[in-house]
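chain below, 295 aa
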Amino acid sequence: MKKLTKEEVNPEIFDLYDDYAHSKIDRRAFMERLSIYAVGGITVGSLMSFMMPNYKDTMLVAPDDERISSDYINYESPKGGGTIKGLLSKPNNSSGKLPGIVVVHENRGLNPYIEDVGRRAAVDGFITLAPDALTPLGGYPGNDEEGRAMQSKRDRNEMLEDFIAAYEYLRNHPDCNGKIGVVGFCFGGWIANMMAVKVSTLGAAVPFYGGQPSAEDAAKVEAPLMLQYAGLDTRVNAGWPAYEEVLKANNVKYEVFIYPEVNHGFHNNTTPRYDEAAATLAWSRTIKFFKDNLV
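prediction:
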């Protein structure tokens, strides 16, 4: 099967995939609608293969990278799902206590991409915890489609409690300096926003294309925010003006970056929505923001 490139496919399929990834349509409907774009020798199968994540060839920091230590741990989330599994990563060459980052997955559990993000941040000098909100249901099942279905069975406010508990775990970790930030993607972006609402001592939050809190909740934000949005992501971006209005009214320290002509999910280097230039810039800004606020 011929491997497609981004330039060969109709950009409308990214919006179609967004609907599928956010459970607005099921797999059958996704494939049926995908057939509209199977023209000129491009098959539905090749389009489907093109859109699905490639975890094998995209890892940036291997689990056994000599620069870091990375292992699974369990921590307690009494207000959430009980005992939660997470990937704890930290640099090997550090001296003294480290700032911490909670890394929050998308709507499909702790997949290899998010584990990789946790390790990347460890390479940059942080102790990180990437929890798996699917732990109460058996954990990330090995593929994103089943992961989405599993995550839809959990209450998102209970999952929020799981990530707040991760914050507490890191804050009390002997290798942590007690200053904790959070970075999250899509669903995880909403979690990052809500942790800024719920955790008054949070050091910094970086939501990537995350849903915004209500005006009432937004008024409770105290943590510095760096908000990362995709220019083509009209679904999520629609909520930004109202959120910004509340942040301004309450003198919250924030920065916002809207990357033009990129799709929702542009940081995820395992799918064709990935934009290397925007992702690299957004990540460098994220790490600097955390160093400015947590070190």
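The longest strand covers residues 68-77. The two ends are 49 Å apart (CA to CA).
thats it, cya
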